[in-house]
Design a protein that fits this description.
The protein is 11% helix and 53% strand. With 323 residues, the chain is mostly beta strands. Strands 3, 4, 5, 6, 7, 8, 9, 10, 11, 12, 13, 14, 15 and 16 form a 14-stranded antiparallel sheet that branches. A 4-stranded antiparallel sheet has the order 20-19-22-23, with no helix packed on it. A 3-stranded antiparallel sheet has the order 17-18-21, with no helix packed on it. The model is unreliable at 15-38 (pLDDT under 50).
Amino acid sequence: MKLRILVEWIKQAIFIILIYSVVINAQNYKLNSNNEVFVDTSDFFPLQDGNYWEYFASTIYGPVPLNLKVIGDTLMPNGKIYKYFLETEDYTFLNEYYFRIDTNNIFQYYGDSVACPERDFKYLDFKIKDSSFWEICRDLGTCGNARGVANTYYDYTYYTYLNKPLETKHFQDVLLDATDTIWTPCEGREYWLSKAIGITRIFYFNVGDFWLTGAIVNGQQFGTLVSIDDQSDVLPDELELLQNYPNPFNPTTNIQYAIGMRQFMTLKVYDVLGKEIATLINEEKSAGNYEVSFNASNLASGIYYYQLRAGEFVETKKMILLK
């Protein structure tokens, strides 16, 4: 009897150990409704509001910093919600992106309806096998019509961030033609994304190789960051108007702009017929970075324009009100 009880106890112990092992080995994966294993995409590309990454590269233009920041949610005309993602180079506005997570993939909203009629294409695929690629609808001319995963490996470069090697995926732009497949051609790009950190390296062909120096990810700081005060000292020569966010919006949106010198300026909102709807700024401003809020609760859904004007400088951008 005692032997039988001992045998049963050992069986249960082994079963518990096996279950625990399965849970530990599967901690980075989940099951969808079809019981297919998929990667927790948010680990590789954390898009929580306020997440921020700083990079530095020795480029053909000299030493250059590059910053990426998640600003917030925005509803695009296709009815899907994206994260507004701002890229600055040397603290000057460079690009803005709209990303959304869908299971194993990161999708990007793209404004060119000719090259990308659905204005939504797969930007990154975290489940695809190494050395595999997928076609993208974005018009990259002759410099890449696909993107792929070159390899997946454990990177020790940022070991001190989490005291462990980071699982990393290396993505590259790919040129497909009738005779050959070329990875990272002409003006292509390469991205390295590490689990729990996000993008750790960006290579822009003919520009530079940007390496992560510091980040704020989901409230946790890694590495070394340039202080916000230091960044605010770097201003445009004249004025700079950024895309409002969220966009589309309902009913409030924010407009950011930067002034390089003290001057009188106006910021006004117009409808599609050119009728002035609101004056947000009409005064002299000192050099600095600013943000103003626009409330359209009394307006109908549609397209509106906001225009920043100072002296001979004039810049106009479009925003969409969806109610």
